[in-house]
Amino acid sequence: MINQNKEEIIVIASDESDSEVEVIGYTFGYNAKGKQVDSETPYDRMENLSLELGMVTVDNAAAQSSLVTGGTRRYTREEKGKANVVDESWLSLKAIDSDLLTDYYESIRSTEPTEDIEAGTWQPAASDARSDLAERALRQADQALRIREASTQESWREAAKRFARANDPNQNNRNKSSSQKQGSPTSRAVEQLGKSPGPFSEALKMVRERTSKRAVQQLIEWKPSEEKQNQNITTPFAPSLLDVSLKALAENAEGIVSLELVPDNLRRRLTDMLCDMRKMNLNVLNLLLQGCPTEIRIKNCSWLTDEQFQQTFRNCQTKDLRVLQLDLCGQCMLDFAFRDALTHSSDSLSRLAIVSLRGACRLSDSGLKDLVMSARALQSINLGHCTLLTCDAINIIAESLGSNLRELYIDDCQKINAMLILPAFKKFKHLEVLSVAGIQTISDQFVSEIITVCGQSIKELDLADCLALTDCSLKTIGSNCADLCALNIANLHNLTDLGLEYLANGCKSIQKLKLCRNGFSDEAMAAFLECSGESLMELLLNNMTKVGPNTALSLAKHSRKLLSLDISWCRRITNEALGLIVDSCSSLKLLKVFGCRQITNVSLNGHSNPFVRIIGLNLTPILDHVNLLEPEEVLLRYSPLTMSQEVWNKEIC
Amino acid sequence: MKKEDTVKLISAEGFEFVIDKKAAMVSQTIRNMLTSPGSFAETEHGEVTFPEISTTILEKICQYFYWSLQYASCNVELLGLADCQHEH
């Protein structure tokens, strides 16, 4: 409607009852009538867009006729024939952005039918003349629009490129060609599924039979429990005294005088809480370093500057230090720090077994060399996101630590080229945990080479985002790693059901499986759970679009030990399926259902599992659960910490 | 408070705290001591001694018991029955 109060808008007042006859201002130039057009107001944009673009003037005869026939009806400017002559706006393409154009297009389309309908109410004489003019105006508008469209489609294509996801076909072609060299094209994979003998194919047969007799949806018979009001089932847990005390300590950390007799696990929890609250500072660090600490675990050192580091660690007694965790230590030039502060005496880090420097983005190969040379007893190194490290670093680690190393995390170290570090990996004979997530040069060949070296001992593999991997890697893993406990194959879209078969036949005791955006089918997933699902404790089925009722049935039947389940974004899991899973998996403590709009309160409130926490739908706090399932005192994840021979000799003799 | 509803907790220095049995049951240790079959001396007299816990700490512990009971009961009332299932 007309903004009568605004000074900027110039209303061409030929007919006051007319609402659409407003000049909208554009930010450029003058229209043909010599009236200055001002900057537009967004309010008026939609209605008035049709008026300015590409209309031609018609003589005043039409205008007068409209006056004559009275103005009970509002009609657009084009009917009145009072549009502007073609002005610069028409010719200057960059003036109109695509939003305006789509609005324009819509308004053109929307005005057409109304005109037809309402033209009929007019008295015939005037309407004929008017409709002719209207038609001519419309035709010209259409022409203008078509020309516009062609030019703006170019600009839209440019804009679209910015938003496109990196799933281009070139990459897929490349992957396919390399996988053909390895010899496993996907069409053959589908035929081969379930043909080779083994527990997986039997399970698959059973799953298929199950669905052949009755529709799988009917197989899931679960009704929400009627006793929703029964309070005895769910007793809300008050936080323990330990939690309450730690929280009080964290909130008043300035007043802490000493952490001397506090055991290491409580120190760790306190430091974690302080880091989360952003209250971690130099004072607390000094408290932690007092005496002869055995563990220093700080999960967020982003506040720590170079001088602070030098100051505190220079005077620290590190001869008993077993664990050093300085994650996110990006401000310090760790190269110099290690050289000066920590390694001033020859055996200062002699007992250091576990070191974690995730996110230390200024750590380079030489700094790592200093660290590794002075800490000969290292068994676990976490260098995730240390982007300056190259394969030299891995070679140094291999030479000094070799078969002592149990855990190596080099996820997202983009400068490390997988093929160049293969010779170094020959020395890691007892490696138990390996994380190479995010390194794109990881290929099937790399996986097969390292598995031949450490396949007997490897227990945890993290291969997320290594997009070049195919079913061949899963075949290698399945046939050689019988003891595999944890596997992360998120975002590997080249894997097919055949790979899942290899995994199911080979790795029977998997405890943690993380799948995300993989293309496994419902039946294959169900068959996998039938064979190897008994020992599963943590299962992530994030964004697995094909997973559905078959998987739910198998989960309910077999996964008694499951503690944590994530079915976010799996849209095919219905309420009944979810209820069945929650009620049958008696150990389930954590269930994540982000993005599952199909799950309603029917199952959320109607299940009868008193301990499970369901996160992701109602407005429940989503970060409380993060440390729920972490074990308390963990040094190495899969084996006890061994003392090296030299240290043993020194201690005893 | 009747005698049967109460328990006595004795600290290292000999201070005696007399609290509700329901409050004491918040602690699994005390609950086991008082309810397990078998003849603990504690079951008979309703007294538990903690020779390694000092008085100030034992006092705080008793306060925690009562707070925990209040937390649990107030949750159920205030937050409604349907929510308490996935409240924690």
Question: Care to describe what's here?
Answer:
The complex is a heterodimer of chains A (653) and B (88). Chain A is α/β, with parallel strands linked by helices. In chain A, 43% of the residues lie in helices and 7% in strands. Chain A contains 26 helices and 13 strands. In chain A, helix 14 (306-314) links the parallel strand 1 and strand 2. In chain A, helix 9 (199-213) packs across helix 22 (522-532), helix 11 packs across helix 12 and helix 15 runs parallel beside helix 16. The termini of chain A are far apart. Chain B is α+β, with helices and mostly antiparallel strands. In chain B, 48% of the residues lie in helices and 15% in strands. Chain B is built from four helices and three strands, in the order E-E-H-H-H-E-H. The termini of chain B are far apart. The chains are: A alpha/beta (653), B alpha+beta (88). Chain B: Pathway: Protein modification; protein ubiquitination. Chain B: It is found in: Nucleus.
Q: What is the CATH architecture assignment of chain B?
A: 2-Layer Sandwich
- The count of helical stretches of chain B stands at 4
Low-pLDDT parts of chain B are: 80-88
SSE ordering of chain B:
EEHHHEH
- Radius of gyration of chain A, whole Å: 35 Å
Tell me the fraction of residues in β-strands of chain B, as a range.
5-15%
Annotation field: number of helices of chain A = 26
Distance between the termini of chain A: 95 Å
User: What is the percent of helical residues of chain B?
Assistant: 40-55%
The mean pLDDT of chain B is 80
User: What is the mean predicted local confidence, pLDDT of chain A?
Assistant: 76
Q: Which percent band covers the strand fraction of chain A?
A: 5-15%
Beginning-to-end CA distance, first to last residue of chain B: 33 Å
CATH homologous superfamily annotation of chain B: Potassium Channel Kv1.1, Chain A
Shape of chain A: globular
